[in-house]
Structure formats: structure tokens, C-alpha cells
Amino acid sequence: MVKNYSLAKDGISVFGTQLFILIVSFISGVILARELGPSGKGIFSALLVYPGILISLLSMGMRQATVYYLGTKKYSESDIVGVTLLLLILSSAIGVLTSIVIISYTKNPDYNQMLILLASFTVPADLTINYFTGILIGKQRINKFNQIKYLVPIINFVLIIFLVFFENLYVLGAILATLVARIMLALYALLMIKREYSLKICCSPEIIKKMFSLGFIYALSLFVLNLNYRVDIIILERLSNIAEVGQYSIGVGFAELLWQLPTAFGVVIFSYSANAKDSNKFSQDIAKMIRIIFPIVLFGSLFLYFASGYIIPFLNGDEYIPSVKMLKILLPGIVIMSLFKIINMDLAGRGKPDITLKIFSPAVLINIVLNIILIPDYGGCGAALASTVSYTLASVSILYYYMKITQLSLSDIFICKKSDINFILGLIHAPPIKRKRIT
Q1: Are 120 and 176 in contact (CB under 8 A)?
Q2: How far apart are the first and last CA of the chain?
Q3: In whole angstroms, what is the distance from residue 175 CA to residue 170 CA?
Q4: Phi/psi of residue 430, each to 5°?
Q5: Are residues 45 and 246 in contact, defined by beta-carbon separation less than 8 angstroms?
Q6: CA 302 distance to own-chain centroid
Q7: CA torsion 40→42→44→50, rounded to 10°?
Q8: Where are the beta strands (DSSP E) in 325-417?
Q9: Model confidence pLDDT, tens digit, residues 203-258
Q10: Which of 106, 150, 154, 353 is 20 to 30 A off residue 378, Cα-Cα?
Q11: Count of CB atoms within 10 A of residue 296's CB?
């Protein structure tokens, strides 16, 4: 029971951090939306899509593989960190060059060389954060993970105020703020890991092979996921106009607010799942988390559905009114996708990232085909509908698979039990859980 409370408390801790991040990022987003307008916001969003997708592939699943192998304790922790450092250097170099080539190839007249370079250099910064936070999660150092996470929006917010609001650098200022914030966070993560380990490159062929083999599947799965999340913006940019991309990105941003709670618990679930001794018992804990989290997400979606028509124009301006309809179409898919956010992390912690790959690959194809069919006639609303269909099909599929391997029923997952209420009450009154320091 103590471990059960520990899982929940760590999840709440991460969610508290993400809530803080959400508030600061939300204010930053409002400032950007008003200062850049739909066209500028569209350029900013579209420009960062390509580096974002590249990061998901070039991360090579190292964060997940690191968590898994630190949990199994098969190899020396210092050797795992050394291999991680080596792969980080190689992937960063490849990432910058590839990003420059891909963005330049789009020949978008709104992009200049400075914007392309700045956007491309977010790749090594994000990869550094990705790789080294895996070590913290693997050692269940959730508090340290939180420290790293909340610094980015603060730095980003300050830089946006200075570069975009006061200096009027427009899209250049927004991209520069994003890059500098991530570089500062990457350096902080590097220093934090350096306090625990000696940062020496390790070239162990066995560890590289094992981590790369498992990590590649994680990376491919993450790549497919991110492609499914962002392919709509890529196609919308090509088949519609940049202003509609900006409006759509606002709708997506509001809809994805609902993912904050399941994403926060997903991070912790991944860490605990990788270290779990009894996977069947842990699945019962996951079902409990879903029974508590899913109703909250559902209630939040209802609030957004009815309130977005007032909130979005008030915060972002009347030129973003089309975002409201796009948001409403996205909401059903976003809600059911919250299930995936939790279940997928348990499967990943068990060393089964291939399940995500098998389930989401068809979903991506469906998303692409529907975007191509719907966007010419329906614009951002068509892109939202394509995403909702794709998210729903993938989430139902993974739920069916999860129920099959864990022997959980629909009532186990969705019907609230008296024990859930007792658990929440116990969580409120449970004493703090002491943690051991990494040595």
C-alpha cells in the first residue's frame, strides 16, 4: 500500500509541476498569439514541427531504455550514463544537419536562414534534456525531474516578454526564446547528472547494442506517436494557409491541456513499471489510476466544450474564433487518448514499446489519408476530425490489448469503486514517503 501511495504522490508531484508549467506556458502562448497574430503563430508552429518530429526519432528511445536498464540493474549505472553521453553527441550532430536540410527543402518563403538555424539547434538541446532526464526517472528521482521541468517555461516566458513584447522581434524573437530556454535547461540537466556521475564516454559494444536495440523500438514508437500528433499541421501548412495553421495550433493547444494529468502520471507509471516486481499487481494499480483520472479528464473536456467559445476570443482575440470549432471537434479524440497516455507507459515500462508501434502505425496512415481528403474542403476542422478518428481507433485498440494481457475487465477500468474513495482519502492523510539518495 505504501508503494501505491508513493506512485500516486509522485504522480501528483509531477502533475503539480506540469500545472505550474501549464499556467506559465499558457500565458506565454496568449502573448505569442496576440503579438504574432494567426500568420506569425502559424509560422512559429510549423517551423518547430520538423525539429520536434526529428527529436522523437533521434532520441533513439534512450530515455526509455535508460529507465528500463537502470530498473533491471543489469549493467553498471556509470556505464549506462557513459553510453548515453556517446549516443547523445552522435544523434545531436545528425539532428542539426538533418533539420536544416528538411526545413530548407520545404522552400517556405516565410522561413529565412536564421529562423531555420535557430529552429534546428533546438534538436541537440531537447535531446540532452530527453537523455538525461531518463536517468532521473530510472532512479525514481521525481523531485529532480520536476526541478528540471519547471525551469523551461519560466525562462521562456521571461525571454518572450523581452524579445517579442518589448523588442518586437516577432517570429525571430519567439524562436530565439524557445531555443535559449531549452539550452539553459539542457545545461542544468547536464550539471545535475554530473553531481551524481562522472560524465565519461563509455563505448561498451554490448551495452550500446542492448540499449540501441530496445531504444530503437521506443524511438520508432515515439516517432510514430509524434507524427500522428503533428502530421495534421504539416499537411494543413501545405494544403491550406499559414493563418489557419495558427488558428488550428491554438485549438490543439487548448485541447491538449486535458493531457496534463494523464501525462504526469504516465511519467511516474513508466518509472514504477520498469521497477515493478509483480506486473499483475501493478496493473491493478494502473486500473485504479484510470478510474480516478479519466472522470477528471472527461469533466475537463465538458468544461472546455462549453467555455471555449468565450475563453479563446477573450484571451487570444476575435481572429482566433475559428479555433473554437476545431477544438470542439478534437475533444472526443483527446479524451479517449488520455487512456492511451496511461496504458502505453505501463506497457513501455514492461519493455513492450513495439505494441504502440503496431497499433499506431495504421492510425498514422488513416490520419494522413483523412487529412488529405478533408483539409481541402474543411481546413482546420477537417484536420481536427482526422485526428479524432485516428486517436479513437488507436486508443480503443490498445485498451483491448491491455485488457487481454492483464485480464482486466471494462468494469475494472472504468467503474469507480468504494476502495477508490478510501484510497483518495488515505492519500490525503498518508505520511510523507522517505527516499534514498542515489549513490
Answers
A1: no
A2: 26
A3: 9
A4: -65, 140
A5: yes
A6: 23
A7: -160
A8: none
A9: 888 888 888 777 777 777 778 887 888 889 889 988 988 889 989 989 998 888 88
A10: 106
A11: 13
The rounded distance, in Å, linking the Cα atoms of 53 and 129 is 15
Which amino acid is present at 348?
A
Neighbouring residues of 92: CB distance < 8 A, sequence distance ≥ 6: 58, 123, 124, 127, 128
Q: At what angle do helices 260-275 and 62-72 cross, to 10 degrees?
A: 40
Q: Phi/psi at 141 (nearest 5 deg)?
A: -90, 65
Check: CB of residue 17 under 8 Å from CB of residue 226: no
Alpha-carbon gap, residue 376 to 109, rounded angstroms: 21
- Locate 294 and state its grid cell: 479519466
What length is written for the chain?
A: 439
Q: Report how far residue 375's alpha carbon sits from residue 401's, in angstroms, rounded to the nearest whole number.
A: 32
pLDDT digits (tens, 9 = 90+) for 396-415: 998 998 888 888 888 888 88
Please state, in angstroms and rounded to a whole number, the distance separating the CA atoms of residues 55 and 91: 9
Q: Where are the alpha helices (DSSP H) in 59-169?
A: 62-72, 77-105, 113-120, 122-138, 142-160
| Nearest Cα to Cα of residue 52 among 231, 190, 247, 189 | 231
Write the CA distances from 81 to 68, 185, 217, 378, integer angstroms.
13, 18, 20, 49
Q: Where along the chain do its domains lie?
A: 2-429
Least confident among 224-228, 297-301, 322-326, 369-373: 224-228
If we measure between CA atoms, which residue out of 292, 257, 221 comes closest to residue 7? Answer: 292
- Give yes or no for residue 124 having a pLDDT over 90: yes
CA dihedral 68, 75, 277, 399 (to 10 degrees): 20
Give the relative orientation of helices 279-316 and 322-349 as an angle to the nearest 10 degrees: 160
Contact 274, 138 (CB under 8 A): yes
pTM of the full structure:
0.69
> What is the DSSP code (8-state) at residue 109?
T
Given a contact cutoff of 8 angstroms between Cβ atoms, the answer to whether 286 and 346 are in contact is yes
- Each as own residue / partner, the long-range contacts of residues 109-118 (CB below 8 Å, 24 or more positions apart, any chain) are 110/43, 110/171, 110/242, 111/43, 111/47, 114/172, 115/47, 115/171, 115/172, 115/175, 116/47, 118/172, 118/175, 118/176, 118/179
Distance CA 327, CA 303 (A): 12
What are the b/e assignments for 166-180, b being 16+ CB within 10 Å? Answer: eeebbbbbbbbbbbb
Number of H helices, E strands in the chain: 15, 0
